[in-house]
Amino acid sequence: MPFAEITGWGKCLPQAELTNNDLSTFIETSDEWISSRTGISSRRISHMNTSDMAAVAGKHSLAAAGIEGKDLDLIIVATCSPDTLIPNIASKVQLELGAKKAAAFDLNAACTGFLYSLETATRMIQSGNYQHALVIGAERLTWYLDWSKRDTAVLFGDGAGAVVLSKTDKEVGLLDAQLGCDSEGRDVLAIPEFGTAMSRFEQDNGYFDFNFVGREIFKRAVKGMGLAAGTVLSRSSMTPEDINVVIPHQANKRIIEALCDHAKIPLEKAFINIHKYGNTSAATIPIALCEAVEEGRVQPNNTLLMAAFGAGLTWGAGVLRWGDRVTPICKSEAVLPHPQSNALGLLEEAIALCKANAEK
After folding, report:
1. Which residues form the catalytic set?
2. Contact (CB, 8 A) for 278 and 111
């Protein structure tokens, strides 16, 4: 059976940065309150669509792999915040990359979406019919937020990360994964009455409630990720000592700490960048993976453990072996157009509308 090696990696982070101090100018909060509870110091706000960020991340990953869009056989975009539901945004990414022969679809498993997509693409390559696959995690979650509600407004950010998978005979790439879903807890993390459940003709249908029951999410997240991590380690005949780097979903620093404790892996092995970007949902793992490689945390032939949880409540973990190369073959100059204002300026209208709605 062939394997699916990560041969390219890339990310896209919007230029506009919203700090905790910025948030404190329109929400009753402070940098100390947010950072002590979540580990987050800032997050990025996109003025562009999710598909635009996905395409930029894809271009960087293709350059790193030394291939072009025309070489791709498959594109999967993991997202729960697409610019359009019909058509999928993977088709727009395909168009942007010139990947005319690639199958293209979106996958929504919320924050676990990248792991679900990585498992799917790996198994499709192992079927023998695909040579190169592009897997992207991309989110514009700030579009959903009610900026008058502190409990959710401080948590999320925008961004995209991507990897290229290439067929190989070497025993590298995703070696094993365990995916699951704790559907009994699906209502503790949800945007209800969206999609066809929405009251289509109501005047205020642009305001979304974001159900977020923090304590219940924490409990179920640690349980789900911990179970999945233990399962893939056991099935792979690995011990915590065999793991060189942990790339966890960046939702809350306390959850990352609890995951490492549950898996009996030292926290120092975990790559953490939540302080810079907040929770970017399906994009957190690929963005963290890119930065771990860029910063030298991932070395040739390292063994990585990835774990995530998300709305649904989906959960999963995977063991991945890195290949020989940790430097890109080429580099792309792709970037998002520069925003016309800073993060507060980009959000000015949304903040005012959310505040007015809260006062009704």
Report:
1. 111, 249, 279
2. no
